[in-house]
UniProtKB/TrEMBL annotation:
Lineage of the organism: Bacteria, Pseudomonadati, Balneolota, Balneolia, Balneolales
Enzyme class: transferase
One Pfam family per UniProt: SIR2
InterPro entries cross-referenced by the UniProt entry: DHS-like_NAD/FAD-binding_dom, NAD-dep_sirtuin_deacylases, Sirtuin, Sirtuin_cat_small_dom_sf, Sirtuin_class_III, Ssirtuin_cat_dom
PANTHER family (UniProt xref): NAD-DEPENDENT PROTEIN DEACYLASE, NAD-DEPENDENT PROTEIN DEACYLASE SIRTUIN-5, MITOCHONDRIAL-RELATED
Residue span(s) of domain Deacetylase sirtuin-type: 1-228
Protein name: protein acetyllysine N-acetyltransferase
Record organism: Rhodohalobacter mucosus
Keywords of this entry: NAD, Transferase
Record EC number: 2.3.1.286
GO MF annotation: an example: histone deacetylase activity, NAD-dependent
Length: 228
């Protein structure tokens, strides 16, 4: 079976009702993303950061995967599919994707503030100031913030390097190192972008851009790939 690798971002979840980052001018429901999604922001105001992620966790728990997530999952009937997502929601899993790498962590997990290997499943529950990890330190969201390394990058780069077909959906490709994954593809493989606007790619050589929203664009691409 050929390997299909999908790199997804906030846009794939937009039609489920979750806001993207850059379409809202860097504000997410009125919060400055740099302020609440950075290690600096955490050190300045933990309560604010916890509130922000509690809100996002609650919202994510209340939405359903859309046709784009489902079309990606359905590709598994013909291909070995791995999804590398920058999203912290679990809509790919809920749609049925069996192999999902979360580059930027997951809302439904908390971790120790001091030790990133101590992870606790919290489902859709909030994290409050004073909630402790098993090591006695404050719990924080298990997400990667600006100013922090991305531990899954090496794994993700290896996965992208094995792709026979590469699909980029719903990401502005403006956040590094995640955006650099596009450069790990092997030469000459088919590469697709599903996005109504134009991501920040250095060169569009060899790419097919399906300039549509995720549900429509991904359903079309699925049909094309299943019939080839
Ligand atoms: P962005 O908000 O930067 O980009 C969203 C992309 O989705 C844009 O290219 C939009 O054109 C596209 N888009 C909007 N609506 C769409 C739809 N209905 N269907 C398909 N595409 C659509 O989000 P990301 O690229 O995911 O990181 O942002 C990357 C990272 O920046 C996030 O993971 C997060 C953020 O700060 C951290 O929190 C560390």
């Amino acid at each position: 079976m050929s390997n299909v690798v999908v790199l997804s971002g906030a846009g794939v979840s937009a039609e489920s009702g979750l806001a993207t980052f850059r379409d809202s001018g860097g504000l997410w429901e009125g919060y400055d993303v740099q302020e609440v999604a950075s290690i600096r922001g955490w050190n300045l105001n933990k309560e604010k950061v916890l509130d922000f992620y509690n809100m996002r966790r609650k919202q994510a728990a209340g939405v359903r995967p859309n046709k784009a997530h489902k079309a990606i999952a359905e590709l598994e009937s013909k291909f070995d599919v791995t999804v590398v997502t920058q999203n912290v929601d679990d809509l790919h899993e809920k749609a049925g994707s069996s192999s999902v790498v979360h580059l930027h962590g997951m809302l439904k997990q908390a971790r120790s503030e001091k030790d990133e290997s101590i992870i606790v499943d919290i489902g859709s529950n909030p994290i409050n100031p004073g909630d402790k990890a098993p090591d006695g330190s404050q719990l924080r969201p298990n997400v990667v913030w600006f100013g922090e390394p991305v531990p899954m990058m090496e794994t993700a780069a290896k996965i992208v390097g094995k792709a026979d077909i590469f699909i980029v959906i719903g990401t502005s490709l403006s956040v590094y190192p995640a955006a650099s994954l596009v450069s790990y593809t092997r030469k000459g493989i088919p590469k697709f972008i599903v996005d109504p606007s134009t991501p920040e790619l250095y060169s569009f050589d060899g790419w097919t851009h399906i300039r549509k929203k995720g549900e429509e664009g991904m359903s079309e691409l699925k049909k094309q790939l299943m019939n080839q």
